[in-house]
Specification:
Blueprint lengths: L11 H4 L14 E4 L15 H9 L3 H7 L2 E8 L2 E7 L9 E2 L4 H14 L9 H4 L13 H5 L18 H5 L10 H4 L1 H5 L17 H14 L3 H10 L8 E4 L12 E3 L1 H12 L13 H8 L3 H8 L13 E3 L2 E3 L6 E6 L3 E6 L4 E7 L7 H19 L2
Antiparallel strand pairs: 1-5, 2-3, 2-11, 4-6, 5-6, 7-8, 8-9, 9-10, 10-11
Length: about 375
């Protein structure tokens, strides 16, 4: 479906051009999450943020955005949009593949359903998805999917020659693991073995969020995109439709397959730093779910410390909870991260949200990753001093 920039809700021509540099996959492989009928535009104000960052850290924010392959970057502080960069006209409204930032959308929906007692994270995965009863997922809980602590073996390394984001966006492939996208989520999930005991340690594996989406569909009694529209996209006041990429059998790639406008990703982040409240004060997510994401148990931190995943080594004292990376208790920040430079950086105490969508030349870059985390922290430190 086209974004709200188009009056033709079924225009495949519009789909092919909503995001410069990308070709949206065929409509039969996309599910649509409708925008809210009652949206309000983001508030704006003139900011001295650029001058403050330059004075405190020698950071030229506009130059940083331009030099780090940014398509759009937006900053909200205390409910007000204070800075925006766009490589394209009205880039904040253009749909963009957000890759693994999709995981926090799925984790947030899980929280909404749990708050409504539609989902019980303590339950076994197989109580919801019975096709997995005789597989490696037997004995795993929904909470272990959310926090990526099942024992599931899954290769998260890239084996496809590192295409550009535009190339990968033409159907998400070739895949991380050969056969995963082609064979379908459920068929592949029934074949993967376990590498360790469920609940033993955190390890980053996208398949767990795709299985979680199947749990949510069974618990919620509807398609993933419909559940998102009803329980999340409508309530947060999303200004644009979102898209979800589907496998050949119509199941959503909730882990990496969402196309979201930067401004709506900003709205999602703003709801999180507002303790689960929408802009109009409506309760979407419980304070308990928000708090346990920001301040998880010592068990979650212990599981993270023992992780074999490379990125976790760059976050001492961190955690992974409900799709978000915790940068450590001393930072007060949680982030969503996606390959090719997608990031949603949240700092609750200063009420700051930073969203950046990009097209890095390669899926991963240690230097660009470190830079975007550092700049996020510098923005937060600057705004906290106001």
């Amino acid at each position: 479906m086209a974004t709200s920039q188009s009056n033709d809700a079924h225009s495949t021509e519009r789909l092919a051009t909503v995001s410069p540099g990308f070709q949206v996959p065929p409509s039969e492989r996309m599910a649509h999450v409708p925008a809210s009928p009652c949206t309000t535009d983001l508030l704006r104000e003139t900011s001295e943020l650029e001058a403050e960052l330059r004075g405190r850290f020698g950071v030229d924010l506009g130059q940083y955005a331009a030099s780090s392959h940014t398509d759009a970057m937006l900053i909200v502080h205390r409910g007000r949009a204070i800075w925006e960069f766009s490589a394209y006209p009205d880039g904040g409204r253009l749909l963009h593949p957000v890759m693994s930032c999709s995981k926090v959308v799925c984790g947030t929906l899980a929280g909404v359903l749990a708050d409504r007692q539609i989902l019980d994270p303590r339950m076994l995965v197989t109580e919801y998805v019975r096709e997995l009863r005789n597989t490696s997922f037997a004995g795993a809980t929904v909470r272990q999917l959310l926090d990526m602590t099942t024992g599931t073996a899954f290769n998260e390394e890239y084996v496809d020659g590192e295409p550009t984001l535009a190339e990968r966006a033409r159907g998400l492939g070739p895949s991380l693991t050969r056969g995963y996208y082609e064979d379908g989520i459920m068929r592949y999930a029934q074949t993967v073995p376990n590498a360790r005991i469920h609940g033993e340690v955190f390890n980053y594996r996208s398949i767990l969020i795709d299985v979680l989406a199947q749990v949510l569909e069974r618990a919620g009694g509807g398609k993933y995109a419909d559940l998102l529209g009803r329980y999340l996209w409508g309530p947060i006041g999303a200004q644009d439709d979102a898209l979800v990429f589907l496998d050949p059998f119509g199941r959503p790639f909730a882990s990496v397959g969402m196309w979201i406008s930067p401004r709506d990703l900003l709205r999602l982040g703003t709801m999180w730093i507002s303790h689960g409240l929408a802009q109009d004060g409506t309760r979407i997510l419980s304070g308990e779910w928000v708090n346990e994401t920001w301040c998880p148990s010592n068990g979650a931190r212990r599981q993270f410390r023992g992780s074999p995943y490379r990125l976790s080594k760059q976050m001492p004292g961190g955690w992974f909870r409900n799709g978000w990376w915790g940068l450590g208790a001393d930072t007060g920040a949680i982030v969503a991260l996606g390959i090719y430079g997608q990031v949603c950086f949240l700092h609750r105490d200063s009420e700051t949200v930073v969203v950046k969508v990009s097209q890095w030349p390669r899926p991963e870059s240690d230097s660009l990753m470190a830079q975007q985390i550092q700049v996020g922290r510098q923005i937060v430190e600057t705004l906290s001093a106001r």
